[in-house]
Protein 1
Amino acid sequence: GDSVTQMEGPVTLSEEAFLTINCTYTATGYPSLFWYVQYPGEGLQLLLKATKADDKGSNKGFEATYRKETTSFHLEKGSVQVSDSAVYFCALRDSSTGNQFYFGTGTSLTVIP
Amino acid sequence: NAGVTQTPKFRILKIGQSMTLQCTQDMNHNYMYWYRQDPGMGLKLIYYSVGAGITDKGEVPNGYNVSRSTTEDFPLRLELAAPSQTSVYFCASFGGKEGGREQYFGPGTRLTVT
C-alpha cells in the first residue's frame, strides 16, 4: 500500500541555517506529492506541491523536487527564520485509491535566534 | 469563502457518551475527509467521501460513523466514547480547478475522553 516516511525530529536550527527534511514514499500509482505546515494550535496548510516527476515545488523560500528514481521529495530552505518554527508533514495523493492522502508522521522544527 | 469550518473547537466527554463533530465546507468540493492526529503519529484517515451519499472507511474507522447527505456537510459521529479516542480531529476537503487542486483543512476539534 501507499505510505510516506519522513525524517524524525525534533529538529533545532539556528536562524539562517540550511534546512533539509527528508521524505520518501511508496505508491502503487503516480502520486502527487505535498508538503504541509502546521503552526501551533492550527490546522495544516499547504506549503508546496509537485504533481509529476522532476517537478519542483516552491513557496516562501522552501523547495522540494519530485524524484521518481529515488522516490523522494525532500524539503529544503537555504536560510531559516524563527517564524519557520512549526511541524512539517510530507504527504502524497494517489488518484488510483480514490484521492486518498497519506501523511508522514511530521517533523517538528524549532529555529532559535 | 469561509473554507472548512469545524465545531466544536474543544470538548470533554465521559466514557460511553456520544457526540457529533460538525464539518462544513463552502467550496463545493466533492471530496471530504476526517483525520485524527495523535502526538507524534501524524494524521490517520478515519473516513472519507467522494461525493454526497457516498462514504468509505479509511485506516482507523472503528468507533466512528459518518454521513454525507449534502455536498457541504460531513459530520463525524462518535458512539460510546473511549479514552483511545482522545485526539485532535481534522476535517478536510479537496478540490479546485485542474492543476490547482489542493486539500483544505479545518482548524480542528480537540477531544478529551475521561
Protein 2
Amino acid sequence: GENVEQHPSTLSVQEGDSAVIKCTYSDSASNYFPWYKQELGKGPQLIIDIRSNVGEKKDQRIAVTLNKTAKHFSLHITETQPEDSAVYFCAASIGGSNYQLIWGAGTKLIIKP
Amino acid sequence: GAGVSQSPSNKVTEKGKDVELRCDPISGHTALYWYRQSLGQGLEFLIYFQGNSAPDKSGLPSDRFSAERTGGSVSTLTIQRTQQEDSAVYLCASRISGFEQFFGPGTRLTVL
C-alpha cells in the first residue's frame, strides 16, 4: 500500500541554524503535500503545503521543495527559533484524493539555545 | 472563532470497558476525520465523514470501533471492549473546503 517515510525522527539544531526534514512517498499519483506542526498537548496545525505543479514554495522562514521524479519533498526552516521546537509531520494525498492523506511518522525538532 | 474541541481530554479505563470520545467540529465544517496517534507514530486514519454521504470507514482497525456524526455536526467515536493496544491519542479534525484540516487537541486514552 501507499506509504510516506520521514527522516530524521529527531533533529537537534542550534538556535539560528537551519533545519531540514525529508519525506519520500510511494504513490506516483499523489499531488498534494502538506506539512503540519504539532506542539506539546495540541493537535497538528498546517504550516505550509505544496501542489504537484510547483517545485518550491516559501513562507517567511519556512520553505518546502518537491521533486516529483524522485518522489520526495522536504521542509526547510531557516534562522530557527525556540518556538520552532515541535513535532513536524509530512503527508501526501492518496492519488488525486482531496480528502485522504498518508502521514509520515513525524520528526521531533529540538532547538538548542 | 472557536476551534475544534474534543472531550474528555484524558480518559483512563479498564480493559474490556466501552468508551465514547466526543468531537465538536468548527461550525459549518462539513468534513470530519478521526485519527489515532500512537506514541512516536504518525497519524493513523480511522474514519471520514463528508456531509450526508456514507462515511469512509476504511481505517477502522476492528469491529470494536465505530463512529457516528449526528446532524452533520458533533461526532462520537466509540470503542467497545477496550484493549491495551487501544491506548493512544485520538485526534479529530474538520475541514470545510480545500485541503486544510483543523485539528482538535485530542483525547488521550489509557487502557489499564
Protein 3
Amino acid sequence: NAGVTQTPKFQVLKTGQSMTLQCAQDMNHEYMSWYRQDPGMGLRLIHYSVGAGITDQGEVPNGYNVSRSTTEDFPLRLLSAAPSQTSVYFCASRPTQGIGNTIYFGEGSWLTVV
Amino acid sequence: AQRVTQPEKLLSVFKGAPVELKCNYSYSGSPELFWYVQYSRQRLQLLLRHISRESIKGFTADLNKGETSFHLKKPFAQEEDSAMYYCALMGYQKVTFGTGTKLQVIP
C-alpha cells in the first residue's frame, strides 16, 4: 500500500515557467488537498477536493490550478512560477465518511523558483 | 470560519521537564481535532486525535470546549521529541492547520 505519492521530490524552476506537481493516492479517499509549508507560517491550504470533478479554493489559491478527473489523482499546476512560490508542497488525503479520520500526507515536494 | 492558533513558534525545554504545546481553535460546529508531528524534512504523521482519547509516545491532549483548546502535554520530555508539532481542525470540508510549534528538547 503506497499511500500518498508525490512527484517530483525536488524541482528548480525559472520565473515564468510552468510545471505540475503530481499527487496520487491508492486508498480510495474522497478528500484530497494541497498545502504549502513556509517557515513561520505553518501549513496553508491551497486547493482541495471532496471528490472527482469537485475542487475548491483554500487560503492561498492564487497562482495555482487543480483538477480532479479521477479519485486517485490530484495534480497541482503552477502556470507561471514566481519566486514567492518557493516552498515545500504537501499533498494529503483522507476519507470523508465517518469521524476521526486521519489525514495521510505525501513526502513533500521541495520547489525553488529562481 | 475555522481557525487554529498555536501561539508559540518555539518551545525549548530540558530533558525530563514537562511539556505543554498550546492549541486554540475557532469553529462553529463540533470540531474534530488532531495533533500531527513532523520530524526534520519528513512528512507529517498523526500523533493523536481527540476522539480516541489515546496516549501516543507519552503525549496526551484533552479537548476543552469551554476554552476552545486542545493542548498537547507530556510529563517528561525526551530528546527524540524534538520536532515540529501541528494542531489541526477538521471542519465540514476543509482541514485547517495551525502555524506549528517547534519543540526543542535540551539534553
Protein 4
Amino acid sequence: KNQVEQSPQSLIILEGKNCTLQCNYTVSPFSNLRWYKQDTGRGPVSLTIMTFSENTKSNGRYTATLDADTKQSSLHITASQLSDSASYICVVTRGSTLGRLYFGRGTQLTVWP
Amino acid sequence: NAGVTQTPKFQVLKTGQSMTLQCAQDMNHEYMSWYRQDPGMGLRLIHYSVGAGITDQGEVPNGYNVSRSTTEDFPLRLLSAAPSQTSVYFCASSYSGSGQGDGELFFGEGSRLTVL
C-alpha cells in the first residue's frame, strides 16, 4: 500500500533552536519527494524537491535529505525563527500513475520566543 | 502575477444547498486539481484535470462535480451539500500536464466551507 507517514505529529521548539522532521514512505515506484510549508490559513508552498539521485538539498535554513534505500526523508531547520511556525507536509510522487501524489498528514511546528 | 485564485474564501451552506467554488490560474498550467483538508488528515484529492475538456476523479469524488472548459478555470460544484463536506478546499495547479510531481503544485489560499 502506498503511504506517507510523518513524525512527529507536532513539535514545539524555542526560537533559535534546530529541529528535524521525518517522512517515511512506501510509495513505489518512486519519482520524487517534495516538502511543502503551510502557514496557518494559507495554501501550501513548496520548499524543496528531492529526486532519486539526490541525498541532500538546501534552501536557506531548510535542508532536506533523502535515503531512497530506506525510503526516508528528513527536513532539518536551522536556527528556527517565529516565522517557521507552520505545518510541514511531505508529498511523494508515484512514478507511473497519472495525477497521483501521496500526501503525509504533516508535522505542526510551533516556534516559541 | 496572481497565481491561483480561489473564491469565495468563506462560505456557510445549509444541508441540501448547492454551490460552486471557483478556481482560476494565470500561469497557463495544464494540470489543475481540487483537494480537501480536514483536521488530522492529509490533503485528499477530489478531482483533477490534465487539460481543457479532460477531468478525472481523485480519491474522494463523491458529492462533487467539476468541468474544465478553459485552461484558466476549474470550478468545483457541490450538488447537494452535506455536513460531511465541511472542510477547507484547496485548488492547485502545475505546469506538468501529466499531473506528476515533476511539476511543483501551486496552491490557492483555500476556501473554508461550513455545511449546517
